[in-house]
């Protein structure tokens, strides 16, 4: 196959990218994105600050722009994200306790009702753990340790057809505390029947560090709990070809690794643009990392 999406589809997987609504007028950007990918994540437009800027007043204009752009081209869409300590609207940042708990539930219900039956997956909860595997202290955590399972139960009822994911970064290395903390939560949810379908590993690789050699073990270990896994926000410092090939190969080796999403199109589109971490350069040319990924799919 000659594109990332088509190559991934040969094994029943997808290859996605983050899309920013503000770039949809850039024809170099939309040409590459429309050609190469078959899954889209809104980079910021479906986050709580974007979708519920005032309490109870939802705004889906930018999210829908991305949704419509993608689905008109036959691409699927991952929802990102419903409950997170970051990118909360101001009104939510100042809430706590039972009023924040209710606001979280209302937010999940409001956003999921709008996209009901339309999305492939939702990142229901994002980044809820510390590096040592304990829970991140946040206003959401302050509402009680059960906030994550409440979010997932609310989400399942709001849209029973969409896959419900937990998404986080630095959970790629199997021997890392955070990975183990997330693993134990998924294990606990599965044993108690808390609804969860997938784990998203953001896969933001930094520095000169090589791919964790146990990355595939992490993917297969999560999968063995009975969830799908996906690489949801991939970018790699200087787009190391060996790391890109290795992470692609790790996903390909795990049957329940259902797809890979890179966190942007060109280096110039990246939130880490100074690190040139993506598969296309600022001019829209394929980089060596592109070929290493395509060959591994
Ligand atoms: C980033 C976006 O790329 C930026 O444009 C924004 O300013 C901050 O958020 N983990 C996530 C993503 O789950 O939502 C973040 O996206 C990157 C880290």
From TrEMBL:
The keyword Transmembrane helix applies. GO terms for molecular function: endo-1,4-beta-xylanase activity. Residues 1-296 form the GH10 domain. One of its GO terms (biological process) is xylan catabolic process. Keywords: Carbohydrate metabolism, Glycosidase, Hydrolase, Membrane, Polysaccharide degradation, Signal, Transmembrane, Transmembrane helix, Xylan degradation. It catalyses: Endohydrolysis of (1->4)-beta-D-xylosidic linkages in xylans. Its EC number is 3.2.1.8. Belongs to the glycosyl hydrolase 10 (cellulase F) family. This is Beta-xylanase. It comes from Micromonospora chersina.
């Amino acid at each position: 196959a000659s594109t990332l999406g088509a190559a991934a589809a040969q094994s029943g997987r997808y290859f996605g990218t983050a899309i920013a609504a503000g770039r949809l007028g850039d024809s170099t950007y939309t040409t590459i994105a429309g050609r190469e990918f078959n899954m889209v994540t809104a980079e910021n437009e479906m986050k709580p600050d974007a979708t519920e800027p005032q309490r109870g007043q939802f705004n889906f204009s930018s999210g829908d722009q991305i949704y419509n752009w993608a689905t008109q081209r036959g691409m699927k869409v991952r929802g990102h994200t419903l409950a997170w300590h970051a990118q909360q609207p101001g009104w939510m940042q100042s809430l706590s306790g039972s009023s924040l708990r209710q606001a979280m539930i209302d937010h999940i219900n409001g956003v999921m009702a709008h996209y009901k039956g339309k999305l492939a997956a939702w990142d229901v909860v994002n980044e809820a753990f510390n590096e040592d595997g304990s829970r991140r202290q946040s206003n959401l955590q302050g509402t009680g340790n059960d906030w994550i399972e409440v979010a997932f139960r609310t989400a399942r009822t709001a849209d029973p057809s969409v896959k419900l994911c937990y998404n986080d970064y630095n959970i790629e290395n199997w021997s890392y505390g955070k990975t183990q903390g997330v693993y134990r939560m998924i294990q606990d949810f599965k044993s108690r029947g808390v609804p969860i379908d997938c784990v998203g590993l953001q896969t933001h690789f930094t520095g000169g560090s090589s791919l964790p050699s146990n990355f595939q073990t992490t993917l297969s270990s999560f999968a063995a709990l009975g969830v799908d896994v996906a690489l949801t926000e991939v970018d790699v410092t200087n787009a190391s070809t060996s790391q890109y090939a290795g992470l692609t190969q790790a996903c390909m080796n795990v049957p329940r690794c259902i797809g890979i999403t890179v966190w942007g199109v060109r280096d110039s589109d990246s939130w880490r643009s100074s690190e040139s971490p993506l598969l296309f350069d600022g001019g829209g040319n394929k980089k060596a990392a592109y070929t290493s990924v395509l060959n591994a799919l």
